Amino acid sequence: MDTVDKNHDLLAFRLADILRRLNQGERLTAPQLAADYNVNLRTIQRDLNERFAYLQLVREGAVYYLEPYYLGKLNERDIRHFATLAGVVGMFPSLENGFLRDLLDSRVSAVYDVKGITYEDVSRYEKVMVVLKAAILQSRRVSGTYDGKARLLEPYRLVQHHGRWYLAAVAEGKTTLKAFRLAKLDAVAMKEEAFLPDATLTEQAADEESVWFGDKMEVVLTVDREAAGHFRDRQLTPGQQVVKELEDGGLIVSSRVAHENQILPIVRYWMPHVRVVSPVSVRE
User: Which in 131, 146, 215, 258 has the greatest CB count within 10 A?
Assistant: First the structure.
């Protein structure tokens, strides 16, 4: 096992063990946990304040504990949901003994989604996220300003993508989802009037792997053999599929995007090893 894999396993089991202890009603402190797991204090503080930010975790002075309502409810199924929220989903494949039960209330867990593995400091959005969470759960409209412009929104989901938090919502007078950056959203308030969520949009908000919502177009790329290994090993473009392996070691790759700006920066980065075959508008 290399160092990275070992570190991932240590992190996964540390987080799982802390969750187990919280689930049993233990009241924990950061210095105590740092000593128990032989890590520095800042590492434990990041665990508690970032990776566990989505638990109903109560802090009283230096002591952390789980809201009584959630005690005894952690299971294997939802540890994987937690792992996604924490950005460490790939570190948990060996956690198969299922000692965790219902990490989050099933309705609340459906509010949040994570599309990347990096973090944005959510402390400045704490009050806004509380309002948006309630509005999503109750299917209530929210008002606010976005880039200084007054908005009335129908909120569907909170999404973290590449380290930034967004609200997937439908703006007044529109019928399609749009991603609104939380950093640009101010004066958020939940309105009295409810809305009927569109089932198609709800599914789209849950299934979209990025924050680019809308109809998709196919972009076909050729990848030469110098870069082919990278595209075989990782999904570097949205909705990426290897269509064909060429005799010279290269690839033909298909990608599905809602906007050309999803893929053009990637093509520019990999040029001259990657070129656009179609559509013509993107190639040009």
Answer: 146
CATH number, residue 183: 2.30.30
Q: What is the 3-state secondary structure (H, E, C) of 163-213?
A: CEEEEEEEECCCCCCEEEEHHHEEEEEEEEEECCCCHHHHHHHHHCCCCCC
Phi and psi at 45, nearest 5°, equal: -65, -35
- Cα–Cα distances in Å, from 80 out to 5, 16, 22? 18, 11, 17
Residue 58: partners with Cβ closer than 8 Å, 6 or more residues away: 64, 65, 66, 67
**Does residue 212 lie in a domain region?**
no
> Distance between CA 102 and CA 81 in Å, rounded?
10
Whether 113 is in a domain gets the answer: no
| pLDDT, tens digit, 9 for 90 and up, residues 38-68 | 888 988 988 887 777 656 678 888 898 877 6
Pair type for strands 217-223 and 185-194: unpaired
Parent domain of 144: 122-207
How far is it, in rounded angstroms, from Cα 37 to Cα 241?
41
pTM: 0.52
Say which residue the tokens 């509010």 belong to: 111
